């Protein structure tokens, strides 16, 4: 398992990168919709 990026939703870096590549995601909102990362406390969103 790769580094956890979003601790609230337990989403790791590999999951985010895979979603971006496979679905051609270009915005934070698209990544949130696809992975749930950043939809908890928001602390992982720069």
Question: What does this molecule look like?
Answer:
The longest helix is centred in the middle third of the chain and has 11 residues. Strands 1-2 form a two-stranded antiparallel ribbon. A hairpin with a 4-residue loop joins strand 1 and strand 2. The radius of gyration is 10 Å and the shape is globular. The chain has one domain: BFD-like [2Fe-2S]-binding domain (Arc Repressor Mutant, subunit A, Orthogonal Bundle), CATH 1.10.10.1100. The protein starts with a strand and ends in an 11-residue tail after the last helix. Helix content is 41%, strand content 11%. The mean pLDDT is 97. With 46 residues, the protein is α+β, with helices and mostly antiparallel strands.
Write out key terms for the chains shown.
alpha+beta, Arc Repressor Mutant, subunit A, 41% helix, 11% strand, globular
By CATH reckoning, the class would read: Mainly Alpha
Per the principal axes of the C-alpha atoms, what is the gross shape? globular
- Outline the low-pLDDT stretches: none
Task: Give the helix proportion (percent range).
Answer: 40-55%
Strand order of the largest sheet: 1-2
Q: Which structural class do the helices and strands define?
A: alpha+beta
User: How much strand content do the residues show?
Assistant: 5-15%
CATH architecture: Orthogonal Bundle
* Topology order in helix (H) and strand (E) letters: EEHH
The span between the termini is 22 Å
Number of strand segments:
2
């Amino acid at each position: 398992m790769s580094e956890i990026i979003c601790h609230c939703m337990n989403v790791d870096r590999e999951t985010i990168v895979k979603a971006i590549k496979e679905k051609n995601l270009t915005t934070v909102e698209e990544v949130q919709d696809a992975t749930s990362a950043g939809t908890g406390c928001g602390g992982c969103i720069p």
